[in-house]
Amino acid sequence: MTAETSQTLDRGLRVLKLLADTDHGLTVTELSTRLGVNRTVVYRLLATLEQHALVRRDIGGRARVGLGVLRLGRQVHPLVREAALPALRSLAEDIGATAHLTLVDGTEALAVAVVEPTWTDYHVAYRAGFRHPLDRGAAGRAILAARRGESDGPGYALTHGELEAGASGAAAPLLGVLGIEGSVGVVMLTDSIPDRVGPRVVEAAKEVADALR
After folding, report:
1. Which ranges of 64-123 does DSSP label H, i.e. alpha helix?
2. Alpha helix locations (H) across the chain?
3. 3-state secondary structure of 210
4. At 75, is the secondary structure helix, strand, or coil?
5. What pLDDT, in 10s, does the model give residues 58-77?
6. How confident is the model over 74-109, as pLDDT tens digits?
7. How far apart are CA 91 and CA 185, in angstroms?
8. How many Cα atoms are found within 13 Å in the side-chain-facing hemisphere of 99?
9. pTM of the full predicted structure?
10. What distance in Å separates the CA atoms of residue 38 and residue 160, rounded to the nearest whole number?
11. CA angle 201, 130, 94 (to 5 degrees)
């Protein structure tokens, strides 16, 4: 900690991060151990976070992330979209196909940013806000592959006709971005994806991941 930082705020943020990383919540004792502070400090931190609905405690006394984080989360997509746009524009112009950033939203894949190429005669109309099951389409399949830890493949997913007849997709997962599951890809009107497209979406996904870190 430096003179310009707040120790209390730092501890509160660490509490939120610890709770976000568990599905079953943590007790005061567990938080005390992981933070390296006494239980009284943890009680005060939790009480303050509860006042802002950022933390809730269940009947058993285990602390969990509260619904207040949803209000903060609503602003995440615009920030992520803004960070991703330069890489998406470059990808769309380079490949000549519609590029997109897709994030996990519950059990679905949600397109949060879409960039269409400027120089092509035609391209697939793909809109931000489009949803589809995670197990259909290259964007969702790339995310699922990363979730399963599949590292022996090419690093990207290819599909044809799964979301739109005559359209093919290629997507690569975002890797190493804490708290975000997503992919970057392209969709084009073709029966098969050119060989260079897969490695190019991997490159673009890395650019987006770097921008979000």
Report:
1. 68-73, 76-95
2. 7-20, 28-35, 39-51, 68-73, 76-95, 138-147, 197-212
3. helix
4. coil
5. 888 899 988 788 677 667 78
6. 677 888 899 999 999 999 999 999 999 999 887 899
7. 9
8. 28
9. 0.71
10. 57
11. 25
